[in-house]
Amino acid sequence: MSYIKPKLLKGFRDLLPEEAIIQKEFFKVISEVFESFGFSPIDTPALEYYDILTGKGGGENEKLMYRFNDNGGRDVGMRYDLTVPLARFIGLNQNELNFPFRRYHIAPVWRAENTQKGRYREFYQCDCDIVGSDSYLADSEILMLMDSVLNRMDIKDYEIRINDRNILEDLFKLLEIKEDKIISFATLMDKKDKMSESVFKEKSLEFLKDNEKHKQFLDFLSCDSLDSLDEFFKDTKVYENTSIYIRRLKDTFSICKENGKGNNISYCPFIIRGLDYYTGIVFETVLKDSLSYGAVFSGGRYDKLAGMFSKNADYSCVGASIGISRLISALKERGFFEKDKVCVADILIMNMDKRYHGKYINIANVLRDNCLKVEVYLNDDKLKKQFKFASKNGYSFSIIAGEDELANDIVKVKSLKAFEENEMKIDDLVGFFKNTL
RNA sequence: GUGAGAGUAGCUCAGUUGGCAGAGCACCGGAUUGUGGUUCCGGUGGUCGCGGGUUCGACCCCCGUCUUUCACCCCA
Fold first, then answer.
1. Which of A61, A87, A156, A261 is the most buried (most CB within 10 A)?
2. ipTM exceeding the 0.90 mark
3. What are the helix (H) ranges across A222-346?
4. Structure pTM?
5. What domains can be seen in chain A, in order of their start residue?
6. Nearest nucleotide to A392, CA against C1' atoms
7. Protein CA at A291 to nucleotide C1' at B41, angstroms
8. Shortest-distance nucleotide from A405 CA to C1'
């Protein structure tokens, strides 16, 4: 055979068991919480027609998408998020669905952007969305779900920051920012956390030019609660409209609070999110000790997107997405995962002699039938080597059954963590491991 | 897409002015043929990312390229 040098594409990676085990554990927790809120799983293809994926107005996004012609000459792209495919899914399957529809989707997405810390070209997203409800209760459910997921992951130092697009639009009106300047102004606001206060003030003044407007803007940014926000808008010309959305946020927030889920949720005036499709509440989650990783769990309300794929219906949607690859990177850097498990099995049966191979498999299968994770050592190696293998893989126990033991229908069970060894009847193994592991 | 740093054994990295390719860990074997966290002894392992150039001679200097890290742009 000729040698082929193994290599990976930029931004793509292998997951070794150690990391894949962690990821799978996260997926399990996430889907359990999603399902506890009544979200059902769906799946959609990795490839879609290119014009479907860009339907909401390409721009920058087009550069970030993997795009090619398939063997039939079709213009296709790999999905770069799970939200646009959801909108397409809704349009295509609306007759089969019962609205309001709650779905979740855990799957990889692809973005041809340059790599960076915790950012890859292929990564997993875990999305949950409610389609077909414009109620503030749907917003609350999503926020409470986010809080539950983070709690279940045992993450303590997170902050869910919320804002509302409508309020921002009123702010822009108030500051008399012209339509064509809104994007660059919003981008500046979005980056507030990345620069020093004085630089930010300088840049925003440069933008607004007018000292009075600038002061007003800074007043807005100092709103750290919905009450102060209300106070800020109270005597302005846009208040009639803004107050509706402040009221809505208050209602949304108090549902969370009344149910003990509001402690890590706060109003944040400079949360913007991407400009493409959000129409109402927006939110981001940051880890206070890992701010450089950016938002790890975010989303918002988008009431127009799904309607693009439907002739005669509009679907109000609200949802959130966890960037699980980035979250794991951040947690890993912080030593969140104490002992790295490199193998899922808990028990290794030592291979003492070919004569007993059948017996080993038999013992293993009985344990396996009881949902225990068991391996039999396959090669006829020295015991020393088998133990070395065992401690490297991190099993909790090994079972030694040689001539002496099997003659008496017993085995030795050795705790690999405690360096202790006990004799035990074969029939007692299931009970012992069920109690111990 | 832009800018800067890095790429030498499986891993982490040394490598003098441009003059024979190194260490630790890991791996394999032995001390120890039924017992893994320690010890001791021995051994395997490199096209110095790849391609070109300069030079008597290149891991070292130059150009290109790929990968990677960090930052920018962007982040649905």
1. A87
2. no
3. 226-233, 239-258, 324-333
4. 0.90
5. 9-157+288-342 (3.30.930.10), 347-436 (3.40.50.800)
6. B36
7. 52
8. B34
